[in-house]
Amino acid sequence: MRPLVATINLSAIRHNYAVAKRCAPGREAFAVVKANAYGHGVREVVTALHDEADGFAVACLEEACEVRALHANARVLLLEGCFEAIELQLAAQLRLDVVVQSQRQVDQLLALEIEQPLNVWMKLDSGMHRLGFDDHLLRENYARLRGAKQVGELNLMSHFACADERGHTLTEDQLERFLEVLDLDFDQRSLANSAAILTIPAAHMDWLRPGIMLYGATPFADLGAAELGLKPAMQLDAELIAIRTVEVGETVGYGAGWEALRVSRIGTVSCGYADGYPRHAPAGTPLVIRAQRVPLVGRVSMDMLTVDLTDLPQAEVGDAVQLWGEQLPVDEVASAAGTIGYELLTKVTARVPRRYVQEE
Ligand SMILES: Cc1ncc(COP(=O)(O)O)c(C=O)c1O
After folding, report:
1. How far apart are the CA of 211 and the centre of ligand 1, in A?
2. I want to staple 196 with a disulfide (CB 3.0 to 4.6 A). Which of 55, 203, 235, 349 is the partner?
3. Does domain 234-357 have CATH number 3.40.50.11540?
């Protein structure tokens, strides 16, 4: 069997959900499980949080169907709403909470014939300029939706663009714009993603929407997951499958992109970009073998990558190699590769077997 596995610690996810809840006592939280629970496996994550989570949030109806099949009662929030009118009927049958972020979605909702009203979350574009109504259109559509027979709860949500950069002025502006429309009588309010849950109590409102923090990664560039009390949920482990010596001036890998400046001991590791390891990770990106960091060298190939073992002479074929996990935060690998933990976690591909553990 190919030595590559993603071990998912479900207790860590439960712990991290509890951290989110502790940050905002008395508030409820939608565990964000879109994109296959950020790569961790939606089935297992929803099951692990079955009795803890107040609700779950997903990106599309297909994901919502999966969550509803796993949890008959939890609130399930469709973060972008329905893409086609026909989806609304199914959303109603599944008792989903739906976002409305455009005039078109409001029109479709108001044209719907349904028995049971839907909980509706109006999305305010408070400054991200991706989805949602400006203040004026929000008020106009609020008047149309309030009291409509298709609408159960009428709620308000918005999303931060820069909550990951602490002290960014746009965050304050967005919070202010959110507060400005609270003269309207919404049943529930939701604004905080992980970054805001962890650092902006004024943004907590009624419902939190923790995503990345559930998986034990940090939303911040300058504040690590461990400092935030989060436990990593995924560990990606491979093995050293070959070792060779290369002479000064010899090169390693595709494109001969790395050249030995000293006689070097090169190890080959059973993980590549087809597993989700970033192909653009530069030489020097860390990996861990025998509790010691070793640098990536040469280009990452489809199924393998290479590391410099010269300063770890005791390394042997068959040694475990940690790509990220307990000893190496995914955020550190992401930062070396010029990306974010979110991308690395969601891109671990289907061919990497997931092994689920419950222990701490
Ligand atoms: C609307 C919305 N809310 C909440 C989240 C969760 O954000 P985070 O993973 O930063 O906690 C996301 C994720 O992208 C989102 O799109």
Report:
1. 6
2. 203
3. no
